[in-house]
Amino acid sequence: MPAPKPKALITRHETEAEKSQRESREAALRPERSLPMGAPARLTGHLVAEATWRRLMRTYGEIDGEIVTRLDMDLLVDYCMLIEQITEIDKMRSVAYAVWMTLAKKHGEYAATDENEAAVAMALKVVNAFDAIVKLDGRADRKRSLLLQLRQSLYMTPRARAGVAPAKKEEPEPPDELEMLLNEANDAIGHGK
User: Fold this and answer.
1) 30-35 long-range CB contacts below 8 Å, 24 or more apart?
2) pTM of the prediction?
3) How far is the C-alpha of 5 from the C-alpha of 22, rounded, in Å?
4) Which one of 7, 17, 26, 101 has the minimum C-beta count within 10 Å?
5) Do residues 150 and 75 touch, judged by C-beta distance below 8 A?
6) 10-14, 148-152, 159-163, 178-182: segment of lowest average pLDDT
């Protein structure tokens, strides 16, 4: 059975008893201290993770409902660190790709000048550089997959939010003057009987 949604995200009609029961259950699980707006100490020195924390806290602060609490702090810290690690892997991949391109160009030069031994040695280096890129891609894919799971847990994906976000109340249309006159006429005719 899925975990119950926070009361701020409930869109169906509930009785007063259901509402008060839900509120008391939520209050029993709500920590006294809220999440800090500034990054926690565990993120100190991790610039990308600290910036991610601050962005998340601003975003969650804009939401009417309380989606995350202090109980989610470790999950949020892990999310922020994962964002930083993916950023680092992307930088490593860029460097590995540049090395691979340089080695491939050098291999082409050796092959064009019939320097077979140097071309073979360079080909091995090209293959090793390519393998490094593939390994970094694999690590990045696994981390992005984990990141998606965390995003779903933290209501950061459209699918996670589907059906839980309260619908915006539409402004009632002002009554039509002709309709008001007809209603008054109907009331006058009905009262005259």
Assistant:
1) 30/66, 30/69, 31/69, 31/70, 31/71, 33/70, 34/69, 34/70, 35/60, 35/68, 35/69, 35/70, 35/72, 35/73, 35/76
2) 0.67
3) 10
4) 17
5) yes
6) 10-14
